[in-house]
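Incident log entry.

Two folding requests arrived from the same account within the same minute. Monitoring flagged them as a possible duplicate submission, but the sequences differ. Recording both here for audit purposes.

Request one:
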Amino acid sequence: MNYQFYIIITLSLLVLILFCKNFILRKKFTQYIIDNNKSDKNNSFLHGLSFYESVKILNKKYRIGKINAYVIINSLNDKDVEQ
């Protein structure tokens, strides 16, 4: 009986650790895309499409989640306005 309890606790901790690592990796990848947007400026999801269509295409391309896609599109638009 104790072995089952230890296995459940171990698996729960493993899932929590993997979830945190996944969140950290997505956040770092989002920041990487924001910092290195030169290769993505020529892609079609920034030119000629609405904001929401750009988010959908970016999310589908990189699978980073809609919130991170919103952050990327907003920051890229802000960088374009500054230049």
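Request two (distinct sequence, not a duplicate):
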Amino acid sequence: MMASEIKVCVIGLGELGTRIAGELSLNYGLRVHVFDNDKLKMKDVNYQITQQKEELIRNGLISPVDSYGDVETFETLQEALIDVDFVFEAIVDRLDVKQWLYEKITHNCKSDTVVCSNTLQLNLEDIAESCLFKNRVIGCRFLVPVYRIPLVEVMYTSMTSIDIVQKVKTFFQRIEKQLVVRQPDDKPRILTLKESREFWEEAKEKVRRDQLIQNTVASHGSFLAPATILNTDDSPCKYDHESSEENSLEQHSDTSLSKCDQGAILKQPGTDVVNEATVSNDDHRGETETHVMETQQKEKLVQDKPKEEDDEILGDDIPNECVLCNDARINCVLVPCGHMWLCYQCGMTVLRAGNGCPACRKPIMKVMRVYLP
């Protein structure tokens, strides 16, 4: 299941709950159900999130052209819990109130719904005591100021099941959040203003890069370039742009590579390092395999094609520099679509973020480094 297909419910629409709903809908495009016993807060929540969105755009923390998720209000708690995968509770930090609420939640949600508490001080074991399914309760505290903060503090109980822990980890990985485990005796993590500003600066840089890609796509359109790349079985292969609609990879066997363990390579005079990044369907995190080839072999990997033909394909107005950093030379191909827009480092950044190809928006399964003439 893609992150955008996951439905979540936020219960409690104070300042914290409203920000959680806004963060999940504005930054990750999730469909968010919200509920609060206070009807005035229910009526006001979309206005509050809209105001926060405009402030985030003004400060460069989100893009004005991004697709946002829906925030839906419901008349009853039972309706708000229909078909949701995660419940994030952000109500007043009183044990009796939370126990009453958690009993209601676990009697009305799906059998596999994860119930997450944002409690700051209460014992999670005590909160889970009233639940129908105690193994599905976990602590997930969004750190204030919530928006564009990549850290989420997580707490487990002795009853939290392994599959629930894995489900929570997978969800937050897909929305690019980092889990910080809090032990029962630990003090809650409180961000300083300096830490918050550092996270915001990182978010601004990501927004700037994404906008640069979009602007470049609008200016130049998509393009392909002739290149020779490394196949997954360590043999060189030629990237053939004309042989099929799928941009198939044609095997060549005129060159061999020596393979060594990842992390064991120290670049020595006379060698070059070639990286290949792969991503599974379930996890958009890059797993790097490293190969070494001698400098004299590198020339054999370049496709022997007249420069005039290259110029016809690329055109005179296509930039040689990466469209993200505008510094390094384009030297990687995005697989399976085959577009060449980025340097290898920026390609890895896009891959790990789970973003699509900047030219065609198709999912990226691999980033393959190439050597161009």
